[in-house]
Amino acid sequence: MTAEPAPFDHEDTNTDDRPSRFKKSISGGFSVTEKVAQYDAWANKYDEDMRSYGYTGPEIAVEYMKRYFKDTNGKYLDCGAGTGPLGVHNVKSTITFFSRILDTYDGLLCCGCFVPSHLEPDCVEDWCRIVKPGGIVFIVMNQRWLSQEPAYNEGKLDGAFQKRVDEGKWELVVREQRDKYLTENVAEVFVFKVK
Ligand SMILES: C[S@@+](CC[C@H](N)C(=O)[O-])C[C@H]1O[C@@H](n2cnc3c(N)ncnc32)[C@H](O)[C@@H]1O
Prior knowledge:
Blueprint: H1 18-25, H2 32-52, H3 57-68, E1 76-79, H4 85-89, E2 105-111, H5 123-130, E3 131-142, H6 144-148, H7 156-166, E4 170-182, E5 185-194
Parallel strand pairs: 1-2, 2-3
Antiparallel strand pairs: 3-5, 4-5
Helix pairs in contact: 1-2
The protein binds S-adenosylmethionine (SAM).
């Protein structure tokens, strides 16, 4: 069975401007300032657009947060938080995200940010520096980008994770897939423990 195309694969129409916002966000050739401006301009429609496309990243991430971010006094970083959907989905739980920048964290998650023209694989070097030993790092991402995005494919991204495991800095806790992440796309979830 062929997977349902993601929103960015759909044709733009005059009546639906969601695909163009989506495509713009994952297109290259923009400076950091321009990318920030794009997200600023999209912010008031981002959650609505993503919900309409069946994006389940935040729900998946909340499930893993509840499983792995156990310390109610812990300081956790939502890397690439965007409009903060995780905080919203998690509002009834005791997990607190820090909006201030701290030197170190008890755990870090990154949801939906390994997409074209976003994070580079070498950001894991910073994560190694800022997450304390014993802390959990987890990533939720669209599986398609592991093979289709040139910045990540052929092991550039999962290889960057594996390098930390080979160096003895991280331990792989679990790597699993979840369906219906974005239309019929599959989510790849990596969970690591920092040694
Ligand atoms: C597709 S959104 C995902 C937002 C949110 N995590 C979610 O699941 O809805 C990607 C986010 O990554 C952020 N981002 C892009 N490049 C980044 C970078 N180099 N460092 C930190 N955040 C970045 C953008 O500002 C944007 O909020």
